[in-house]
Amino acid sequence: MSHPDIPHTIDAFHRGRFHLIQPSARGHRSGIDAMLLAGAVPDDFSGAVADLGAGAGAAGLAVVSRCSRATATLIERSPIMTDCARLSLALPENSAFSGRCEIIQADVTSTGKARMASGLLDNSFDFAIMNPPFNEAKDRATPDALKAEAHVMTEGMLEKWVKTAVSIVKPGGSIAIIARPASIQDLLAALQRRFGGLIIVPIQPRPQDAAIRIIITGVKGSRAGLTFHPALVMHHETGNEFTERAISITNGIASLF
User: How far apart are CA 53 and CA 59, in angstroms?
Assistant: First the structure.
């Protein structure tokens, strides 16, 4: 790595169909959430997806790993994480789709000329996916500044992320967000009058448990109403095995819908 002081791992996803270089001791490490977010993109998707706040690029790479005609732009502010993404694309294990990916180092919350100058052009993507920071500043503060940047939400951040998404997505294009259920009010407020036809999918650890995540999708400019889809249940009532549906989605075999 060009940051030799950063210990890292090479992690396999989608049963080895793609690999990701991630910092091992600091920063955000992607896992199930990123795979679920990628699963919100339809199987037959063939357009350009923007992975906002991509980190090392797990969700965006998961989309192009599953959707053979999709392209992905990984958008990330942190130089360390964008370096991980670049090195991930250079891995031989990712050669099948690395030519369909690009990386933009940019702040998702930038606006106007600054956003355009970074390469985030208006109406240039068919789909935006995002896993925005969802810990409030008072939640489990971490001494790891790189991790805090990925996990801790500042005032008005969701609004800024959605505003960027609506700017860069084409009319009729889509958005998908994974977040905590506690964020639903702020998310709906940010999405209002920007994205319609909203679908909310609760993510439950077990059938008897409350949801710990939600995935929200929507269509830019749609006037359709809000619907709740059946929950995705990750595990059976007992034991640690994943459900068949969870296995299919997290391994890039099927989409969420």
Answer: 10
Contact between 157 and 39 under an 8 Å Cβ cutoff? The reply is no
Structural domains for the chain: 8-193 (3.40.50.150)
202 and 181 Cβ atoms separated by less than 8 Å: yes
Q: With bands split at pLDDT 50, 70 and 90, how would you rate the model's confidence at 136?
A: low
Q: For tokens 């670049």, what's the residue?
A: 86
Place of tokens 């990330």: 76
Q: How far, in whole angstroms, is CA 110 from its chain's centroid? A: 18
Q: What is the DSSP letter of 93?
A: G
Beta strands in 99-257 (DSSP E): 101-105, 125-130, 135-136, 152-153, 169-179, 195-204, 213-220, 227-228, 232-233
What's the mean per-residue pLDDT of the chain?
91
Rounded CA gap, 101 and 116, in Å? 19
Q: Which residue type occupies 239?
A: G
The total of other beta-carbon atoms located within 10 Å of residue 17's CB is 17
Q: For position 135, what pLDDT does the model report?
A: 55
Q: In this structure, are strands 232-233 and 227-228 parallel, antiparallel, or unpaired?
A: unpaired
Tell me which DSSP letter residue 45 carries.
Answer: -
Which 3 state secondary structure label does DSSP give 105? strand
- 45-59, 100-114, 128-142: least confident range: 128-142
pLDDT at 154: 64
30 compared with 127, residue with greater pLDDT: 127
pLDDT score for 151: 46
Sign of CA dihedral 94, 42, 186, 202: negative
Residue 92 one-letter amino acid: P
